[in-house]
Amino acid sequence: MKKIFIARHASTRSALRGQEDIDRELTRKGETEAGWLGHHLQAHNDLPALILTSTANRAKETAILAREALMPELPIQTDAQLYLAPAAKIFKILHSLPEDINSVLLVGHNPGLSDFLIKATDQSGLNTETRNRLYRGLSPATLARLTSTAREWKDVLKDNTRLDQLSYPGE
């Protein structure tokens, strides 16, 4: 069984004049949200073996602050392919994870993360409100908890992956 946690980066500043999108940073609110991600995972005894994050500053900051609240020694890896990745790329990234890892926290961006959750999971157990929120797109620092019955990452598919829960900061 594989556990997948998907987190959209926390709230960010608007790009400054001449600033590249990839260089945007978290706001103070975003820093609090990122810490919430780690505390929330810890409170639910959800400990990923690895944090995999986009190379965007806002995603890396989210990953680092979540890790500090969760477990400071947890490894973080950056993957440039996660920056603004569409659903198909996220599947490829998951399918290439080492088999000795059974759980991962992916920190990335919309609209790719929302699209991935819609395309990659069975949402039949979700209530109407949660399903509607999913289809509107993940807000900053939203955390999705997925369970796949696949034994190997390459076998993670919609048929064997369930969206268990969406969690939001402040709720």
UniProtKB/TrEMBL annotation:
This is Histidine phosphatase family protein. It comes from the Bacteria.
